[in-house]
Design goal:
By secondary structure, this protein is α+β, with helices and mostly antiparallel strands. The chain has nine helices and 16 strands. Helix 8 runs antiparallel to helix 9. The longest helix has 18 residues.
């Protein structure tokens, strides 16, 4: 792929730096189909007037960081298109599973209640120790509705059951003292994901509760399991499995896996998965750091793979106290070196960050075959 450059620096809010020539490399047929699916990703129209989720705010309290919140909300929409086509349906925030319903599910199991989290089998008298011995697994249930564009009726529902890989404990004793800690839910070294298995176990009860609630329409339900990442991770968690419950049915017949994973650069796990991409990113990183040694730029990549194929690449370039002249130079260098990591059909975004503030951005648009760059 040949890249032409036209130096149109800072003449518009978003200006073109480069574009592909007509003699761009031809992609193989199977790759072309894959590229098309990425470039033409379907996006739902939001039903207007927009409604807020009836459990609004609860997801922020229940899930451990904003990365997981963003991933589960956006990811559930992306996965739902296979069952509720964007041409036929609007997407609407969940209107049926309110805070009262969700909080009941989040309680620990008891004889008289509806809780779906593990009970404390034997109390030691130490509230923190009891929580560590019986970590909570279910953290939230996200609902999205799908409205028929012709008749305005809700004719589909998607759910994401969010599960803790790590249980962040915050508990009070009878004297009012607060204790905090964190434990890993699955500590067995048996290559079996106990978190996923627990999610599948409680999913049947959630579907049963929904079908028994006459206030909730009896519509097809697409259901997924999502495993949160650690609260200190810089990448979100992962979707584990999915199932579909047709209208009128109240049981789950089978599950299928979801192969969507996020990786960071640099990391051993990315190197093991994709040495070629890792090597390209390493060259890019070293070139940027060599060009601006005095700023000591810190470079972190975030990569998304679906079914083993790279589908998205994001890079953060952290440069504290960069001035305007340096920013122009860094944007120029970054856009030039971006050629070393270009993929024909993978979108790439590079953020220039100064003390947690975005000050510049470089984008590769695989559809238009163009690189864009602008200061912010």
């Amino acid at each position: 792929m040949t890249i032409k450059k036209s130096m149109l620096f800072f003449l518009s809010p978003l200006f073109l730096l480069a574009s592909c020539s007509d003699d761009a490399q031809v992609i193989k047929n199977d790759e072309k189909m894959y590229a098309s699916s990425i470039q033409q990703k379907e996006i739902y129209e939001i039903k207007q007037p927009a409604k807020s989720n009836v459990s609004r705010g609860l997801i922020l309290r229940n899930m451990n960081n904003s990365l997981n919140v963003s991933e589960i909300e956006k990811g559930l929409m992306d996965l739902s298109v296979n069952h509720f086509p964007t041409k036929k349906f609007y997407m609407q925030e969940g209107q049926y599973l309110d805070g009262k319903i969700i909080n009941k599910w989040l309680d620990r199991k008891s004889k008289e209640g509806f809780g779906l989290n593990p009970p404390i089998e034997k109390s030691t008298g130490d509230v923190l120790e009891d929580e560590k011995n019986s970590p909570k697994i279910l953290s939230h249930v996200l609902e999205q509705n799908f409205v028929n564009k012709e008749n305005g009726k809700v004719e589909g529902m998607s759910l994401a059951i969010s599960l803790n890989e790590f249980y962040d404990i915050r508990v009070h004793d009878d004297k009012g003292l607060t204790y905090t800690d964190q434990v890993k839910v699955d500590t067995n070294e048996d290559n079996v994901n106990d978190v996923e298995n627990y999610g599948k176990e409680i999913a049947g009860t959630i579907i049963e509760n929904i079908r028994n609630n006459n206030k909730i329409p009896n519509v097809p339900i697409y259901l997924t399991l999502y495993q949160e990442s650690d609260k200190n991770d810089i990448i979100p968690g992962i979707f584990l499995a999915q199932t579909f419950i047709p209208e009128g049915e109240g049981k789950i017949d089978k599950w299928t896996g979801i192969d969507i994973k996020n990786y960071t650069f640099p990391s051993d796990s990315l190197y093991s998965l994709d040495k070629d991409t890792y090597s390209k990113l390493l060259i890019f990183k070293e070139d940027i750091q060599e060009g601006f040694k005095h700023l000591n730029p810190k470079i972190v990549g975030k990569l998304r793979y679906e079914n083993g194929n790279l589908t998205e690449l994001k890079i953060d370039v952290n440069v504290p106290l960069i001035n305007d002249t340096e920013l122009i130079g860094l944007l120029q260098l970054t856009s030039t070196k971006l050629n070393t990591i270009l993929f024909d059909y993978i979108p790439i975004s590079i953020r220039i960050i100064d003390q947690n503030q975005d000050v510049g951005i470089v984008l590769w648009d695989p559809t238009e075959k163009q690189i864009y760059v602008t200061p912010l």
